[in-house]
């Protein structure tokens, strides 16, 4: 069995990009829906709620530093119950990756490539990710090392450009709808924190898996800070009403800028950064899906599954949603929150089994 390793730093970059990528697309419009001008407060609340999810998932993983969830779930629950619950995790990898690539494909198709078939745009991105995954997770880690500085630079420019045009009155009044609306707006971003499930496959590949909780908390906190800055930029420039109506609010925020008569269409910075993030995100999901499925079937190598899974992902991305508006409805709190939280239910069962086995041994 292949024993590739990545540094904790590379894991941090990968998780940061996975977490932040979807935020650039939809998060401001999702949080402004209920919280209005207080949407930025929802991003602060979600920082604390996602930390709880990290302890639930990664805390169990570091108890089995050399095993993925496919392996230790069978040790804790038995072969068939363990395999059954890991199917839920593998499905999540498939669905989230298909959803994210469809969102980015829709963006390129609507804003830049209206005459290019959507399947070609999506297929090209998935194929590039599949090549990276086939070469190995170490290459994926190096690509995260390479792209992370460029990502931060491009996003930094995209956030700084709207600052001179922010309208402070757009943030008033604070807590006009009460704290309840702010907390309800934090449901979807918290549920998107289910991205942490990829760590259940990646952790055994890390050089120092025992430091996994610290690494993931830093990655999520940094990504949530980025989401906070994006929310402030969107609300300050567009206002809560226009921000909630926009399909891609952050993109619209930057597109509305004109530094001069000759300098416009500055959204290219955000689009390039988003593309880098999507590439890493797709590669992570594809690796985790292929690795997990290979262990589920008892295969020695995940590579033969990489390209067949990539084809399935393209088909899934094309047929899961009819339009970008259906994707937006999917991320509504009443739909996405219970769906995503289902992925954490097996961990409650696994923790109970782990504690029970520990108590049994001690007795």
UniProtKB/TrEMBL annotation:
Keyword line: Germination, Membrane, Transmembrane, Transmembrane helix, Transport
Chief location bin: membrane
Cross-referenced PANTHER family: SPORE GERMINATION PROTEIN A2
Compartmental location: Membrane
Gene Ontology biological-process annotations: spore germination
Bilayer topology term: Multi-pass membrane protein
Lineage: Bacteria, Bacillati, Bacillota, Clostridia, Natranaerobiales
Family per record: Belongs to the amino acid-polyamine-organocation (APC) superfamily. Spore germination protein (SGP) (TC 2.A.3.9) family.
Descriptive protein name: Spore germination protein
Pfam families in alphabetical order: Spore_permease
GO terms under cellular component: membrane
TM regions (residue ranges): 12-33, 39-60, 80-98, 118-137, 144-163, 183-203, 215-235, 268-290, 302-321, 336-356
